[in-house]
Amino acid sequence: MWSFFARDPVKDFAYEILPDTHESSGLWTLHRGKRKTNGEPVSLFVYEVALGTDQQTQLAKAAFKRMKTLRHPNILAYVDGLETEKCLYLVTEQVTPLAVHLKAQAEKGGSGELEVSWGLHQIVKALSFLVNDCHLLHNNLGMWAVFVDRAGEWKLGALDHVASETGDPSGATLPPPKAVYPDMEKYDPPETPGSSGTEKWAGEVWRLGCLIWEVFNGPLPRAASLRTIGKVPKLLVPHYCELVGANPRARPNPARFLQNCRAAGGFLSNSFVESNLFLEEIQIKEQAEKQQFFQDLSENLDSFPEDFCKHKVLPQLLTAFEFGNAGAVVLTPLFKVGKFLSTEEYQQKIIPVIVKMFSSTDRAMRIRLLQQMEQFIQYLNEAAVNSQIFPHVVHGFTDTNPAIREQTVKSMLLLAPKLNEANLNQELMRHFARLQARDEQGPIRCNTTVCLGKIAPYLNPATRQRVLISAFSRATKDPFPASRSAGVLGFAATNSYYSLAESAARILPMLCTLTVDPEKNVREQAFKTIKSFLTKLETVSEDPTMLVELEKDVTSSAHPAGVSSSWAGWAVTGVSSLTSKLIRTAPGAEGGAAAPENIVPVLTACFPSTASAAAAPRAPLSHPSALSHAPQTSANEGASDGEQEPMADRWDEEEDWGSLEVRRDLFYVVYVNFLSGLSKAELSKKRREERKKELEAKRAERKAAKGPLKLGARKLD
User: Fold this and answer.
1) Sequence-ordered strand ranges (E) for 274-406
2) Residue pair 28/57 in contact by the 8 Å Cβ criterion
3) Where is there biased composition of kind Acidic residues (predicted)?
């Protein structure tokens, strides 16, 4: 029973010390530790009474007391403590000694002036708080007294020698640093302590000057070295010289020093310091000021330290969205900061906010999310996409704002790999069919076709067979030229998903109509795509065993390793760069033309009943323009009395491509214009000659039918 009252209080302490994490910090030994209940990281300062002198124990107990009573954002934060006969335990926020931090930063390339400027600002502000508000003197300012937290912010610690400027009323005095550590004498000011007429802060700002010198130049070898500026920045030199001036009366008050450095063009006047000061007061700022700050913050984040972005900016951004109604303006800086997070941190901190943002009715936020989806899509799991995000995103397909409809279509390229069977092959295809048939914006109809071609590998085989040919065929009839080009390129990009029978009977006849399209770009793409399909047909015609190999992807449901997520080539960027990604992925799109001697097996594969006709010379069509030109007719035209019939929101209706004679004529145009190898001038000349011969033959036929002319009759020809 007596052992219950005599048990060690250290075992009941709420914190534990991590092994092999100690380093000296003045009188104390600094350890890394954690809270036993939740694993929260902390720092533990431990002082062992048995290893110290009476003076050192007195200083340690004084520091323990000061840490409990002094509270300031720039002073090391006290969390908990334990005092026993053997040890003193002081628990603070997790920090690293400044010397260790600067050494680690030097290995990465060195601390930037922005980070140092804000660190000095914090230390001077803490010193001003002690001197001007608390009427205390630190008496121990130096590199060893400064610590850095996870956000990179500097904290003033080492309160062992803090004393009142008027002395202790009880008469007890603490020993000066040099009495405990003789090598600390070089940091003492040249004047005698307590000299008449000397300002109370004279010694404090002198040590501040020593700290500045060591931050930029390393350990101070001797007091005389302060005269050498070294690497102290030019903007800081005049103010530094005031701190270490020989005349103590000329040394500025810490508050005055801070004001001088914050003046326009001063060392502490920069975007990083301004951003930090705004974040400290963000709760009392007006909404318009917050909006402007977050807009400007996006441009500055690239130059800010990574730790600062993760541990200070990010919490403020999340708070601003959650409680401050910041809206879409926080998205850009939020995603920039997200690049610094690990996958686990991103899932914990940012993904819940993104999911909540998608449910917002704010159009500005919705379009920002869609535009920047590429930055966070890899962190979204399939369950969240299908149940929490996609149901909200699909509302964008029917939005009255064209920009939102356009961005919604583009976002499907990123969402498609994560959609389930129902959302991808049913819900999404229904919206795509409606957009392609009914949307009044040509670029949106075009981009719908482009996106369909890019996500085709993720569709199941049955959906591909039902949708692709009908969708791309509809696109080739669109009055918007870029949509027709997108339809052609869609066939080129997905040609491995069609059987050879479909290629010959449905796709090639439709593509042939585009060889006389008014737009040159459409015609060129049509010829290239036809060449791709004809090459496959010719290959199988020469070697029928290749049929299985060429049709292996028709019923395949294997998803590709990755699909290009670049937005280059969407119709909204211009017709000239339309769907550049699609044509690059089209197998055989850049292949050479089939040789004229190989046209017979190609035509035989397409139309078995026309083999003999293809082998023999044939009279040409009167003119290519005699062919009906489908793309000139709007997708919704055709109703009588100016009425428009609503297009079906389906793609599984069979396309009518006319009789076999029309198909023969179309293929003959391809044969004449594409496979003959003649130049445009030669083709034109040849057509004129053939037209002339045809007219002469008709005249001769009419003369023969009328018989010989009678005397006196009017000559008709």
Assistant:
1) none
2) no
3) 640-654
- Judge whether 451 and 491 are in contact, CB under 8 Å: no
Distance between CA 163 and CA 717 in Å, rounded? 126
d(CA 305, CA 116): 11
Res. 286: pLDDT tops 90: no
Q: How long is the chain?
A: 717
Tens of pLDDT along 5-17? Answer: 455 667 788 899 8
Measured distance CA(447)–CA(454) in Å, rounded: 10
Q: What is the pLDDT of residues 513-569, one digit of tens each?
A: 999 999 999 999 999 999 999 999 999 999 999 888 888 888 876 555 444 433 334
390: three-class secondary structure by DSSP: helix
Amino acid at 199: E
Per-residue pLDDT at 169: 53
Residue 145, C-beta contacts closer than 8 angstroms, at least 6 positions apart: 138, 156, 157, 158
Confidence of residue 580 (pLDDT cuts 50, 70, 90): very low
- Measure the CA–CA gap between 226 and 652, rounded to whole angstroms: 84
Q: State how beta strands 78-83 and 154-156 pair.
A: unpaired
- The model's pTM: 0.68
Token code pair at residue 459: 């569709």
Task: Extract the tokens encoding 233.
Answer: 């920045």
CB within 8 A of 320, min separation 6: which ones?
Answer: 282, 290, 294, 326, 330
Contacts of 196 (CB under 8 A, 6+ apart): none
Regarding beta strands 95-97 and 87-93, do their DSSP bridges make them parallel or antiparallel, or are they unpaired?
A: unpaired
Alpha carbon 309 to chain centroid, angstroms: 16
- SS3 labels along 547-603: HHHHCCCCCCCCCCCCCCCCCCCCHHHCHHHCCHHHHHCCCCCCCCCCCHHHHHHHH
φ, ψ for residue 31 (rounded to 5)? -120, 150
329: number of Cβ within 10 Å? 22
- Which residues 6+ apart lie within 8 Å of 592 measured at CB? 531
500 closest CA partner among 449, 546, 457: 546
Q: Hunting for tokens 């939740």 — which residue is that?
A: 38
**Residue for token digits 């926080």?**
330
